[in-house]
Amino acid sequence: MIYRSFDIEKIRAEFPILNREVNGQPLVYFDNAATSQTPTPVIDSIVDYYSRYNANIHRGVHTLSQEATDAYEQARKKIQLHFNAAKSHEIILTSGTTHSINIVASGYANLLKKGDELLVSAMEHHSNIVPWQMLCKKTGAVLKVIPMTEKGILKMDVFSSMLNEKTKLVFVNHVSNALGTVNPVTEIIRRSHEVGAKVLIDGAQASPHIKADVQELNVDFYVTSAHKLCGPTGVGMLYGKETILNELPPYQGGGEMIAEVTFEKTTYAGLPHKFEAGTPNIAGGIAFGAALDYMNGIGFDTIAAYENELLVYGTQQLRMIEGVTIYGEAEEKTAVISFNVNGIHPYDVGSILDKMGIAVRTGHHCAQPIMDFYQIPGTIRASFSFYNTKEEIDRMITALKRAILMLQ
Ligand SMILES: *Cc1c(COP(=O)(O)O)cnc(C)c1O
């Protein structure tokens, strides 16, 4: 073990699910890009909330409500500090990345005009494509695609040539969930700002591996989901610069988001409440904070270095198998390997691996345009986390060889 501070056995012991068996075999969980597993301290934070201080927030004078409000707002503070936002009210707690992107996309409905241009990258998740298509339909703005190379790298020179004074918004993922490519977001943000465009970075796939600093990036919007980084499902964040969030209208109407309501007129609350209508996922928000504490306790540099070892090892092992094609060969990648085996449908491989207790994802990974680009129906995707091991990769390789023998 290279990283002395990294005790893999201790870490694995903190994930109860890793003890279970699937189809009579110890579970190998390689579907981390879809959702990560949850460590005991995060599970405990949810149990603790419902066992000791479950109450609605922001409105009650009673003790439980105050304790719940404090814990929820403390979580917001933790998220702020983690992403280095200048102000805690720039962190909007949402149900996840999809919700966050929809808040921004619907907010621009009255701020765009016919002929405005929006740029999206060729390697986006559907949740960073469809809300913008809906926005274009409403406004007459035009969606343009930043192309990528065969290796899954954005063509930055083409991107530069696409930018002009009509470009209003640019949205790109920090890391592609289907290919693992780490995009040059600093440069994308800088060049977009030169023509006055605002930038939204989808950080859902980056957040488990890279600690983003929104002020250093100078990004306008940054979004992520807690369930990709050891937190629960159904909670995430929208970071936005205060001045820009203030310009956007609320997304939903309801309780929590108002200052004053009469039947004639309603005035809205300030940030962050303007975008947080209704009772939120309180336990989820608190657990999001606990998940960041947990991951920071290990350290993002340590996590990234260990996962990169797994990526290099897994890639080497897969390349030695005849007929395997890997999609996504950027220099800078997170621990995601998308691949296919010549002549075999990805679904069939995934099913056989599951019989052997190994969870990989097969299909288009909510990124059909990428599959169209490579002219394939889908891929097999193995995505690693810091609680995975090389021994587990060996098990996948052995199982894959058996699957190939069975299917060819
Ligand atoms: C997972 C993921 C999403 C969607 O996240 P939800 O939690 O389903 O809203 C969007 N973009 C990327 C890059 C993702 O990996």
Question: Which helices and strands, and how do they pair?
Answer:
Layout: H1 8-13, E1 21-22, E2 25-26, E3 28-29, H2 40-52, H3 63-83, E4 91-94, H4 97-107, E5 117-121, H5 130-139, E6 142-146, H6 156-162, E7 167-173, H7 185-194, E8 198-202, H8 214-217, E9 221-225, E10 236-240, H9 242-247, E11 258-261, E12 266-268, H10 282-298, H11 300-319, E13 324-327, E14 336-341, H12 346-355, E15 358-359, E16 361-363, H13 368-374, E17 379-383, H14 390-407
The chain binds pyridoxal-5'-phosphate (PLP).
Pyridoxal-5'-phosphate binds at residues 96-98, 125, 127-128, 173, 177, 202, 204-205, 225, 228, 236.
Short description:
The chain is α/β, with parallel strands linked by helices and 408 residues long. Helices cover 39% and strands 17% of the residues. It has 14 helices and 17 strands.
* CATH class term of the largest domain: Alpha Beta
Give the overall form. Answer: globular
| CATH architecture heading of the largest domain | 3-Layer(aba) Sandwich
The total tally of domains equals 2
Category by helix and strand content = alpha/beta
- Whole-number radius of gyration? 22 Å
Q: Strand arrangement, largest sheet?
A: 4-10-9-8-7-5-6
Q: What is the CATH fold-level name of the largest domain?
A: Aspartate Aminotransferase, domain 2
Identify every distinct bound molecule in the structure, by name, code or SMILES.
pyridoxal-5'-phosphate
Low-confidence stretches: none
The main pleated sheet reads as: 7 strands, mixed
Number of helices: 14
- The N- and C-terminal alpha carbons lie at a distance of 37 Å
Residue share in helix: 25-40%
Work out the strand percent: 15-25%
- The residue-averaged pLDDT reads 96
- DSSP strand count: 17
- What name goes with the CATH superfamily of the largest domain? Type I PLP-dependent aspartate aminotransferase-like (Major domain)
